[in-house]
Write a structure and sequence with these properties.
Shape of chain B: globular
Distance between the termini of chain A: 63 Å
Radius of gyration of chain B: 23 Å
CATH superfamily of the largest domain in chain B: Cytochrome-c3 Hydrogenase, chain B
Number of helices of chain A: 4
Strand content of chain A: 15-25%
CATH topology of the domain at 3-131 in chain A: Beta Polymerase, domain 2
Number of domains of chain B: 2
Order of helices and strands of chain B: HEEEHHHHHEEHHHHHHHHEEEHHHH
Radius of gyration of chain A: 21 Å
CATH class of the largest domain in chain B: Mainly Alpha
Largest interface: A-B, 48 and 54 residues
Helix content of chain A: 10-25%
CATH architecture of the largest domain in chain B: Orthogonal Bundle
Helix content of chain B: 40-55%
Oligomer: heterodimer
Order of helices and strands of chain A: HEEHEEEEHEEHE
Structural class of chain A: alpha/beta
CATH architecture of the domain at 3-131 in chain A: 2-Layer Sandwich
Number of strands of chain A: 9
CATH topology of the largest domain in chain B: Cytochrome-c3 Hydrogenase, chain B
Number of helices of chain B: 18
Shape of chain A: elongated
CATH class of the domain at 3-131 in chain A: Alpha Beta
């Protein structure tokens, strides 16, 4: 019921609004061009006064549209949530409108999404990496990024020159154990991802 | 809330110094506070720009404890991720375990038995007491009152003995599974919890006697780090920090889960949103937690402690695995493929000691989440630092950090 009322009210702002499949709270898909106006309406007219979560989904390296930005809004008066999702237009250089002018909490959450997915937020006042270091070249939550990570230069060139160290991929032998999703029964056994060395063969230097 | 703050006004030293500073042109100083400063409780770094003792700019630097939990979650089954939730808010692992399990159960659309719900309420509230004891002790220690720290740490140690008895581990408990908890409570454990509650209340009174009307405590915390109602909501603050600013939201009462609607408790609220209010709220919340624990133990239902009919989700009893073929197969399938989950999306938030810990799970079916986003309350609670520290003194920063009571494990994830 609430979802229907909300939908008819929001369609005035954004006619292309579609309901999104959900298992709990009302959820909507909207074109990215009207995302800002939609969330502004939710905040001003429907007392969703707090942006509790802003994140993104990578739909897979082959998929198009590849990136979807997802927002969860909470109403501190009615104590309910709503989920708004929007597909980014460009698969190579995804962008989304920044919500910093609506919610202060969007600032750090958008920085985090930029850091981990590489989605650029337009008009963000301070779009820097927040969890990884500034010089880091990858976006780790993209699906093509391996769990172990890549070998990279150290962030401090002085220490790197002195010690000769690099950022190394995590050693994966022995775990974490992964059950691959596959139709072939044999693939579903939990295996260690890197089996190039074990008790019998020593790890190559 | 016991306070006679109205009769007392704190000396506004920050404003006086600011007025004096306007008369002199001083060179701004850039200072790095942390990442291993004792009052940053872990590995937070603050890049400060100072004019004398006045903070002109504060830029928090995060990521020193980033472990990529969300990436790891995409590569393992739902049950395998439970130990990682211990390391989010590592001061209240039992509450994280329960929050994560409830999020996945929401995805699977399953009900857990009443006894399991009640056990989760008891453990979550004990975790809240333990987290607040540590948060309060460290907060007062940073501001200079060492005695409180000794009291709260002694009590916390008793709690960890109880946790060890229940789960086998003091710190990293991994107590829940999807669809239940790992084991039932041992004999006499509930009585020992009640004894602990009995001993805790007079000590909370002691803490209150030491702090609530303490002149030095007033000077350090009253009217320091004031967060307005609007700012608290807009910055996405949750938990005691939000209620400290007078916003009446508590998910245990407003969006009840795990049977919280069956218990009576009050939600303390602050008035001014300063560091003092946040202290008073944590103290009162511990008393309310004791109330909830007593009610839950009083009404503890009998029955199974895991959803027995959920054979495709919960690993069966260990004793049966070794004797019965059916359970052996079930255990093998759950271990190798993970529980059988429907496709879909859920978002669930639980009221944890630090605030609302949220899990957004995108499932495409099977035993591995496609995407799992963790919404750590400390992440949002810290984002207000760049506003609330500016204009205050450097010596206010430990008080503000202590009163925000953050933990970097769930902030950096």
């Amino acid at each position: 019921m609430i979802a229907q009322d909300l939908k008819s009210a929001l369609e005035e702002v954004c006619p292309e609004l579609q309901e999104r499949e959900t298992l709990d709270w009302p959820a909507f898909n909207c074109p990215i061009a009207s995302l800002f106006e939609l969330i502004k309406t939710l905040r001003d007219n429907h007392v969703f006064d707090s942006l509790v979560d802003a994140t993104a989904i990578d739909n897979g390296t082959e998929a198009s549209p590849r990136f979807t930005v997802v927002y969860h809004l909470f109403s501190s008066k009615n104590h309910n949530y709503v989920r708004i999702a929007s597909d980014c237009q460009d698969d190579k250089n995804p962008t989304a409108p920044s919500l910093c002018s609506l919610f202060n909490s969007a600032n750090w959450m958008e920085r985090e999404t930029y850091d981990l997915f590489g989605i650029r937020y337009e008009d963000h006042p301070d779009l820097r990496r927040i969890l990884m270091w500034d010089e880091y070249p990858h976006h780790p939550l993209r699906k093509e990024f391996p769990l172990a990570g890549f070998e990279e230069e150290l962030w401090d060139p002085e220490i790197a020159a002195e010690t000769g160290t690099k950022v190394k991929p995590a050693p994966m032998a022995g775990g974490p154990f992964v059950a691959r999703q596959s139709a072939f029964e044999g693939d579903r056994e939990p295996i260690a991802k890197d089996e190039s060395w074990n008790e019998a063969d020593e790890k190559p230097e | 809330m016991p306070t006679d703050k109205a009769e007392y006004t704190a000396p506004d030293s920050g404003a006086k110094t600011a007025a004096a500073a306007q008369e002199f042109e001083t060179e701004h100083l850039e200072m790095s506070m942390g990442p291993s400063h004792p009052s940053t409780h872990g590995v937070l770094r603050l890049n400060l720009e100072l004019d004398g003792e006045i903070v002109k700019m504060c830029d928090p630097v995060l990521g020193y404890l980033h472990r990529g939990d969300e990436k790891i979650a995409e590569n393992m089954t739902y049950n395998q991720f439970v130990p990682y939730t211990d390391r989010l808010d590592y001061l209240a692992p039992l509450a994280n375990n329960a929050a994560y399990a409830m999020a996945v159960e929401k995805l699977a659309n399953m009900e857990v038995p009443e006894r399991c719900q009640a056990i989760r309420v008891v453990t979550s509230e004990l975790a809240r007491i333990s987290a607040h004891l540590l948060g309060l002790g460290a907060y007062t220690m940073d501001v200079g009152a060492l005695t409180v720290f000794m009291i709260t740490f002694t009590e916390r140690e008793k709690l960890y003995k109880l946790f060890e008895e229940l789960t086998g581990a003091r710190f990293t408990t991994s107590y829940t599974r999807i669809g239940g908890v790992t084991r039932d409570m041992p004999d006499g454990w509930m009585d020992r919890v009640l004894t602990f509650c009995e001993e805790l209340l007079p000590l909370l009174d002691d803490v209150e006697a030491l702090l609530t009307r303490n002149r030095i405590w007033f000077d350090r915390t009253a009217d320091v780090g004031v967060i307005s109602k609007e700012d608290a909501v807009s910055y996405g603050l949750t938990g005691p920090n939000l209620r400290g600013s007078g916003v009446d939201v508590d998910l245990r009462r407003d969006a009840p889960y795990s049977g919280y609607e069956n218990y009576e408790f009050e939600v303390p609220l602050g008035e001014n949103g300063d560091c003092y209010d946040r202290y008073a709220i944590r103290l009162e919340e511990m008393r309310q937690s004791v109330r909830i624990v007593r009610q839950a133990i009083d009404k503890m239902p009998d029955g199974p402690f895991y959803a027995e009919e959920a054979t495709k989700i919960f690993a069966p009893n260990k004793g049966k695995i070794l004797t019965s073929m059916e359970e052996l197969i079930q255990n093998f399938m759950i271990t190798t493929e993970g529980p059988d989950m429907p496709a879909g999306e859920v978002y669930f938030e639980a009221e944890n000691p630090k605030g609302a810990l949220g899990f957004y799970i995108v499932s495409k079916g099977g035993g591995v989440p496609y995407r799992l986003k963790i919404r750590g309350p400390s992440f949002n609670n810290l984002s207000i630092l760049e506003k609330v520290c500016v204009g205050g003194m450097v010596s206010d920063i430990p008080a503000i950090l202590g009163s925000l009571d953050f933990v970097m494990g769930e902030c950096d994830r």
